[in-house]
Amino acid sequence: MSTGDTDQKKCRCGYERSHPWIVPKPSYSIWGWILVGFGISHPPVAVRFECDKCGEVFETITGRDSLKHHIYR
Ligand SMILES: [Zn+2]
User: What secondary structure does DSSP assign to 53-73, as a single string?
Assistant: First the structure.
């Protein structure tokens, strides 16, 4: 079931994902770490959005389709 979730989650400071204080922290599988270590872009298995100011992790993305949009080097 799709909820069509468009609500922007916010940390306790009120910052959304797109705010400069918000740092995406990707988590990779072992294989993913190897690929990324070689400089090969690879989708993470999860991305946590952490506020650099208050340290709160207010959102975690684990969906495969969503993660395609979160490839980091
Ligand atoms: Zn915050």
Answer: TT--EEEEE--HHHHTT----
Where are the chain's structural domains? Answer: 22-67
pLDDT of 3-15, one tens digit each?
A: 555 678 999 999 9
Q: Find the length of the chain.
A: 73
The pLDDT tens digits of the residues spanning 19-53 come to: 999 999 999 999 999 999 999 988 899 999 999 99
Is 0.90 topped by the overall pTM? no
52: CA distance to ligand 1 center in Å? Answer: 7
CA of 60 to the centre of ligand 1 (A): 15
Tell me the CA–centroid distance for residue 34 and ligand 1, in Å. Answer: 31
Ion ligand 1 residue ranges (Cβ < 5 Å): 11, 13, 51, 53-54
